[in-house]
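Bug report

Summary: structure tokens for Pimeloyl-ACP methyl ester carboxylesterase differ between web form and batch submission.
Environment: batch mode, default settings.
Steps: 1) Submit the sequence below via batch. 2) Compare with the web form result.

Sequence submitted:
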Amino acid sequence: MTSQTTTENQTIQDSTSGYATVNGLKMYYEIHGQGKPLILIHGGGSTIQTNFEKIIPLLSKNRKVIAVELQAHGRTSDRNADLTFEQDADDIVALLKHLNIDKADFFGFSNGGTTTIQIAIRHPEIVDKMILGSALAKRNGVPDWFWGFMAQAKLENMPAQLKDGYKKVAADTNGLQVMHDRDANRMVNFKDIPDEQIKAITVPTLIIIGDKDVITPEHALELHRQIANSEFAIIPGGHGQYIGEITTITPDFKESDLVVPMLEKFLDKKPTK
């Protein structure tokens, strides 16, 4: 389906959405704007809109933003298999091949950041630059309570905004429990990404977290030290507040609080010779 969307400054951009058969999934994607491709990869329990609704209109003014929904999330189907970050990475690359995109920038948030790391490890040829928003690479990158919480995770404790966001778009809302359980099991079974794999990443990388994030500053700083060609920023706020993630929106929300100018500055930076 194709539609026209109008941004606040009345510039008109092309927006399309669709499904692709990818590795046994019916995978949903949206394309906004024109220009160099930027792939947005959502976090656990999320949809395109719950993570990125606030920043897509801004980022798509100057580039082609391609947002995806991963296995069991939002409008994308489930397969009879546990979630893994490696499989998510392969699914996204297969989708991009379907869309005839051989190189792109990537922005992954939370679990999507971990998936983005796997794309850079497994498919470095497709990555130009990557932004890791609150990404986890090691179990010690979050406080100890996180793992106990995940081991006891229940659907009723999932943020209402994320449950509502899923129900708003999913063809079958009975999949909510499946999505929740697959996400929780993936985190319970999460294993450290080996140092040598992280150190082998050479693409220009921007690492960002909030100062009240679930990801620890020490972890983000260690990622910065291990990825040689990287920049690092700590932004005031909680997990995803810097992009207007739906659970962080407060009545005093302002577009000017978002980190879009920082993202664009990084993405537009020419490589130094």
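Above is the batch result. After comparison, the two runs are identical; trailing whitespace caused the diff. The two ends are 43 Å apart (CA to CA). The beta strands are 2-6, 12-22, 25-32, 37-41, 64-68, 104-109, 127-133, 205-210, 230-235.
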